[in-house]
Design a protein that fits this description.
Layout lengths: L1 H14 L10 H19 L2 E3 L2 E3 L3 H8 L4 H18 L5 H6 L16 H11 L5 H6 L1 H13 L5
Antiparallel strand pairs: 1-2
């Protein structure tokens, strides 16, 4: 449908600007999915069923869309960027930042979520354990990124 093409071409890129670098917490995922469904409901409108109007259910919205949800899209973009940085030679700034180990100790309390840990957790959930060699093969990595768009994530 044209409505979904407009959403993926205009609205989603604005929402997901810089999403490759986000660490998504559960609350963030829920907010993003809620926002996406809210847009779909607003654009598609209610359904008249047996003479009564009702809002569309979540499964109806995603069946009509036939594309990945916003969280899967963000996870696939993160994997794409992660593979890109893994293939970079040493000395390139993104690679140096990714492999940087800061000096000193962390503050007290629960450790902050790290981007790399989040991405590695996504890869493990997909059953990928050999990161470096998989990332070196671009075709294999592209297939992995495409698989991530339609993968049924636990969280």
């Amino acid at each position: 449908m044209l409505i979904f093409k407009l959403y993926t071409a205009i609205i989603r890129p604005i929402i997901c600007y810089g999403a490759e670098t986000w660490v998504l917490k559960e609350a963030d995922k829920l907010r993003l999915l809620t926002f996406e469904r809210k847009i779909f409901r607003r654009v598609l409108g209610p359904v008249k069923e047996n003479g009564n109007w009702r809002l569309r259910r979540n499964d109806e919205l995603y069946l009509k869309n036939n594309k990945e949800n916003i969280v899967s899209f963000i996870k696939s973009k993160r994997l794409q960027w992660f593979g890109h940085t893994l293939r970079m030679p040493k000395g390139r700034l993104p690679n140096d930042i990714l492999n940087w180990k800061p000096q000193g100790t962390r503050a007290r309390g629960r450790p902050k979520d790290r981007w790399e840990d989040d991405v590695i957790e996504d890869l493990r959930e997909m059953g990928i354990f050999d990161l470096k060699s998989t990332a070196q093969d671009r075709k294999k990595w592209r297939k992995l990124v495409e698989k991530a768009k339609t993968f049924h994530w636990k969280s």
